[in-house]
Amino acid sequence: MIKFAYPYLLYLLLIIPLLAGLYAWARIARRRKLRRFGRPEVIASLMPDASRYMGWIKMTIELAALAFIILAVARPYTPTADTDGAETETARGIEVMLCVDVSNSMLASSTDDPNGVSRLQRAKFILEKLIDKMRDDKVGLIVFAGDAYTQLPITSDYISAKMFLNGITTDMVPTQGTAIGAALEMAINSFTPDSEFQKAIVLITDGENFEDNAVEVAKNAADAGIQVDVIGIGTGKGARIPIPGQSGKYMLDSSGQPVLTALNETMARDIAKAGDGIYLQGTSSSVVSDLDDQLSHLSTTEFSRTVGTSPANELFPIAAIIALLLLAIDGLLPYCKISWLRNINFFSKNV
After folding, report:
1. In 10 A of CB 52, how many CB atoms?
2. Are 131 and 162 in contact (CB under 8 A)?
3. How far apart are CA 219 and CA 5, in angstroms?
4. Which of 65, 221, 254, 279 could form a disulfide with 226 if both were Cys (CB 3.0 to 4.6 A apart)?
5. Distance between CA atoms of residues 108 and 243, nearest Å
């Protein structure tokens, strides 16, 4: 028995008869307009390459392709006999909240090279590699600048986590600044309530905190049994902040001088120390493995999770392949008569 992960999307199939009706109406209107110019058989002789049937054939193929695309998006699958497409398994892991600085200073180079990879891109790379190392842990995502926002609640869905991570930009938070304390406080409140999970916060920032007492909040997290690890991005030398979309232009202060931003390593180390965690330099080649080793020291907790259908039960690739084949066939068929079929009469004398 075939079921659909998103059955409500099947309502989109109602578009197909609507499009077919509109096409039929357009063909009838075209025929009426041609009759105004003269007798149909005379006009047909003036358009020897025009086909009465290719338009309908192509439209049928296109509507069939659209139908299979909708079916693929609705994600058909065949459920297993016992679990109706889902099963429960036991795993052991920890909970990790990722706090990512998205202030404008994260647009600056992560190295002493002014044309180097931006701090934000480096942060994304580090956290994506960290997620790749996770197996049975839960992960969440918070972005912050002048304010903090939860991007992804705590979850075991690593695909979604990486998707949200890759979509992070400095435009996500309208208020500029670096409210590290607000981000840490939000992370503390974002873990699964009343759970026995060992918890950790991974803060990745350039350490330029101007909004609140992040060290005090990190100490509160440690008192609650939550480890705070900090990854510092950038260098102490200072770097200019490029203006997005304007190549070669940099942010200026009120006096017209370029704004320089440097890694506040002292602040970052103080936060990690207060949070009973470790400080790591983001430019280190071993930053991911060192952080993974640090998190592995936390004891894991057993929990149950639901696993969806296996890849073997998924049918949407079949629908997608059929749709692609139909679109390929449609692209090869012309609207005019096919030359090698021109002399063959299938239906009547006037083809």
Report:
1. 14
2. yes
3. 44
4. 221
5. 10
* Intra-chain end-to-end CA distance of the chain, in Å: 44
- Residue 93, SS3 per DSSP: strand
Task: Answer yes or no: are the C-beta atoms of 129 and 165 closer than 8 Å.
Answer: no
Alpha carbon dihedral 319, 324, 328, 334, in 10-degree steps, equals 60
pLDDT of residue 340 exceeding 70? no
Please count the residues of the chain: 351
How far apart CA 74 and CA 113 sit, in angstroms, is 47
- Other beta carbons within 10 Å of 102: 24
**For the whole prediction, is pTM greater than 0.85?**
no
Closest CA to 94 of 129, 130, 136, 131: 136
CB atoms within 10 A of CB 171: 10
Among residues 146, 134, 49, 62, the alpha carbon closest in space to that of 96 is found at 134
Closest of 103, 299, 307 to residue 211, by C-alpha:
103
Q: Is 9 a residue whose pLDDT tops 50?
A: yes
> How far apart, in whole angstroms, are the C-alpha atoms of residue 185 and residue 180?
9
For residues 139 and 93, the answer to whether their CB atoms sit within 8 Å is no
The DSSP secondary structure of 115-176, one letter per residue, reads TS-BHHHHHHHHHHHHHHH-SS-EEEEEEESSSEEEEEEEES-HHHHHHHHHT--TTS-SS-
Q: d(Cα 137, Cα 133) in Å, to the nearest integer?
A: 10
Per DSSP, 8 falls in state G
The tens digit of pLDDT for each residue in 144-163 reads 988 899 999 998 889 889 99
**Token couple for 5:** 């992960």
Closest CA to 209 of 145, 282, 276, 290: 145
Which residue, chain included where needed, has tokens 């990790």?
96
